[in-house]
Write a structure and sequence with these properties.
The protein is α/β, with parallel strands linked by helices. It contains ten helices and 13 strands. The strands form three sheets. A six-stranded mixed beta sheet has the order 7-8-10-11-12-9. A five-stranded mixed beta sheet has the order 2-6-5-4-13, with helices on both faces. It has a two-stranded antiparallel sheet with strand order 1-3.
Length: 255
């Protein structure tokens, strides 16, 4: 494995169809964001197309980078200066393709961040909630996980960081809602769907009050920590399907 070659356009079309990118109203363009070499042999995946990831991909001899957080976000300054200039300069100098998939990667039933986070934490999905069905609702399949504190310990051991827990650690977890990344805005939808425990990447001041006043325990597990697994699964699948090389590079991020 790892001796194959893949046409850039073929990969773009395959990922557009597989991730159903036209389904979503997103905050950024999904697909090929920066054009590099037409033939792909060595793929690097990562969560965010930071300069550190690009430099590591260059060191690994990559011709293509596939990420969850790419560029050209809605409302950002369109000028190619500063940080954006430095990142794009590296990609163009080394003729590296940058593919990015945001909400389509969160939602995919097999390779998605929600699906893969559920797999890592032993959560079994039963239904979706929220806009575009971005939130997932289900139960824990782990026999030892009975309370919010039990789930928090699973998160710490498997994601490598202790979550911030809002609520009573001794509360029974019941129905668990989850959505990776910056999904605190879905807490109200999770409550309406029947969750009494909610897990996501981030939480801010107003959401703390909603969690407390609703009695729903909230586990804030870190944006980066909850979104490492979908991109890895997708990259591994592409490598196996098309016979190209693949390496996931994790750039640690505490938030």
């Amino acid at each position: 494995m790892g001796q194959g070659k893949l046409d850039r356009g073929d990969l773009a079309q395959y990922l557009a169809e597989t991730l159903d990118i036209n389904r979503f109203r997103d905050f950024c363009p999904n697909g090929l964001q920066v054009e590099g070499r037409s033939t792909i042999e060595n793929l690097v995946t990562g969560v965010t197309a930071s300069r550190a990831l690009i430099e590591a991909a260059i060191s690994a001899g990559a011709d293509t980078i596939l990420v969850h957080h790419g560029y050209f976000w809605r409302g950002e300054d369109a000028r190619i200066t500063g940080q954006k200039h430095q990142r794009l300069k590296l990609l163009l100098a080394y003729d590296i393709n940058l593919f990015a998939y945001h909400l389509p990667l969160d939602m995919h039933p097999e390779f998605g961040n929600n699906a893969q986070l559920g797999r890592v934490l032993g959560l079994i999905a039963e239904k979706n909630f929220g806009e575009d069905g971005l939130g997932w609702l289900g139960t824990s399949a782990e026999p030892a996980v009975k309370t919010v504190g039990d789930l928090a310990r699973v998160v710490e051991s498997r994601l490598g960081r202790a979550p911030l827990v809002i609520g009573d650690p001794e509360q029974a977890i019941g129905q668990v809602g989850w959505c990776t990344g910056a999904a605190q805005s879905l807490l109200g939808d999770a409550i309406a769907a029947g969750a009494n425990t909610y897990l996501s990447g981030e939480i801010s001041e107003p959401t703390v009050h909603l969690a407390r006043e609703s009695g729903v325990a909230y586990l804030a597990c870190g944006h980066h920590a909850t979104e490492r697994y979908g991109i890895q699964a997708l990259g591994a699948y592409i490598a196996e399907k098309f016979g190209i090389r693949h390496q996931f590079i994790d750039v640690p991020n505490p938030v």
